[in-house]
Amino acid sequence: MATGAGKTRTVIALADLLMRCNWAKRVLFLADRVALVNQAVNAFKRHLPDASPVNLVTEKDAEAGSFVSTYPTMMGLIDDTRDGQRRFGVGTSTSSSSTRRTARCSRSTGRSSTTSIRCWSG
């Protein structure tokens, strides 16, 4: 999809729906560039302020309802643990019925980039 087509806004609406239906308690939005992370954090604050978006590139220890990060930053945090439990990744839910939904989109900006969102309960 083209730049400015509303991909981030669509993902925020999806995250809002999943959280309101209790299918997800937390949301992870991944982007391949810091500029896209900053844009996404601002969009989350504007359209879904109750999710308390956290930029993991700059605030690695924060807890929130929504996290925004670059892929390399997330790879550095994926195995992070707190009180013996993983903060991120598959199976981070305390319940056995964790539901995850993933939406991916590509941007046509002259170079290949990917943005994705992951929601998980727990």
How would you summarize what this structure contains?
The chain is an alpha/beta fold.
Amount of beta strand: 25-35%
In whole angstroms, the N-to-C terminal distance is 32 Å
Q: Name the overall outline.
A: globular
Number of domains: 1
Compute the gyration radius: what is it? 14 Å
Question: What descriptors fit this protein?
Answer:
single chain; 122 residues; alpha/beta; 5-stranded mixed sheet; two-stranded antiparallel sheet; 3 helices; 29% strand
Could you walk me through the main structural features you see in this protein, from its secondary elements to its overall organization?
With 122 residues, the chain is of the alpha/beta class. It has one domain (7-120). It has helices at 7-20, 34-47, 71-77, and strands at residues 26-31, 53-55, 66-70, 81-82, 85-86, 101-108, 112-120. The chain has a five-stranded mixed sheet. It has a two-stranded antiparallel ribbon with strand order 4-5. Strand 4 and strand 5 form a beta hairpin. Helix 1 (7-20) packs across helix 2 (34-47). The protein is globular.
SSE layout and pairings?
Blueprint: H1 7-20, E1 26-31, H2 34-47, E2 53-55, E3 66-70, H3 71-77, E4 81-82, E5 85-86, E6 101-108, E7 112-120
